[in-house]
Amino acid sequence: MAVHRSLPLPAPGDLIRGFADRNALEQFLRQQFPAAALIDAGLSPVPGGRKAAELVLRRLDPVAYNRNRNFLHGAVSQLSPYVRHGLLGLAELKDWLISQKRPWRDQEKFISELAWREFWQRVWQQRGDQIWQDIELLKTGHLPESYNPALPIDVLNGETGLACIDAFQQQLVSTGWLHNHARMWLASYLVHWRRISWQAGAHWFLQHLIDADPASNNLSWQWVASCFSSKPYIFNRENLEKYAGNKFCDSCPAASNCLFDASYEELQKKLFLTNNVLDDQSQLQPPLPTFGFESATTSKSQSAPKSTFKFKNPLLWIHAEGLGPANPVWQAWPQAPALFVFNTARLEAEGIGLKRVGFVFESLLEVPVVLRNGDPAAEILEFAARCGCDGVVTQTPQDPYLQKIITALGQHLEVEQLAVDPFVVLETPYLLRRFTRFWKQAQPLLQQQFSS
Length: 452
Hints:
Elements: H1 22-32, H2 34-39, H3 50-57, H4 62-68, H5 80-84, H6 90-99, H7 104-127, H8 153-156, H9 163-175, H10 180-193, H11 198-208, H12 214-225, H13 237-244, H14 264-271, E1 315-317, H15 328-332, E2 338-342, H16 344-350, H17 354-364, E3 370-373, H18 376-387, E4 392-395, H19 400-409, E5 415-418, H20 435-451
Parallel strand pairs: 1-2, 1-4, 2-3, 4-5
Helix pairs in contact: 1-17, 4-7, 7-12, 7-20, 10-12, 11-12, 18-19
């Protein structure tokens, strides 16, 4: 769905939108966000925007994904950055997959990975900022206070002497993306071998990953740590070589004395203070979902949302969960002025790198939205006055931080929230704890849609 509208006349403080090329964009962002430029150098090689997402989508092969997704060079979708930022939604992707008319068995694994994201989002909705705290007791036998709250310097610099771990660090900071298996291995190494708190690792990922989503990120780290799973996740050298080949081990200076070269039972005894022997971890599904989404056509299950407030001239507030034209506010108010605000103070406080900022900025260049920098609530109110708006319409956010902004705005202007189409509709009154229970309810409903 294309969005056609004109932008308001420029005003002092509006961020520029026209760039000769990506190098010019990067130079501008370095000047505008100097703290982010210190976190990591350059933009991600993964471009932002809906158009780029559609190019990636065309390469999606659910059959190959099902066959070799766990291998580092397997047929993963690489769509996660685009779905995370709402450039297209899970419901749209589901409808696109249905339109391909493939058998359910050929797509079930990919659909289940989308369901992982849906599950994480629902847990976040239930728990809010509590996803930064241990949801359950650790199953490692170690006390939470025994984990170091800071990342080691050798890990941050990619100088551990372990070829695999250093390669994962390098890819993380240089590209802003990692394969799911690499994320799990890196998280497992930090939490279990180096005894670093999962919160420190989760924050590190959020700084660099362009698909960084607090729900999928934090809850996956908790899955690895064992405070949101039945056992800690560990790996051994055999598992690494199975899914990564010999590319790391053959060149590793520590290959002859590898930390991971042991059976799971031996590692269990070495790392943990429990007597439970871990199952073969190589058979476990990765906890981090691979995300994807559909093409530019409007989802057939999606209809234009109806406004409940009688606004005559609303302001559309676009936030980081809904950067693309799939955001329902575009359909409800196709001619209303739109605004996105970069909160530099918060970006600096959280240490967000240039790759994340750049991906968001680049995505916004494809939609007609005014870009500002500052306190979001204040900027939104000022923009509303500038455009003579009588209310604010925004996509319903998951992030509690964004909800706080809505609360602040509500003291001055009416705010209407429009929800994106659901991936699956089911009752979840119970406290979500395990994906298997969620999938047991969701799978037959989704399969029915593919069969109808």
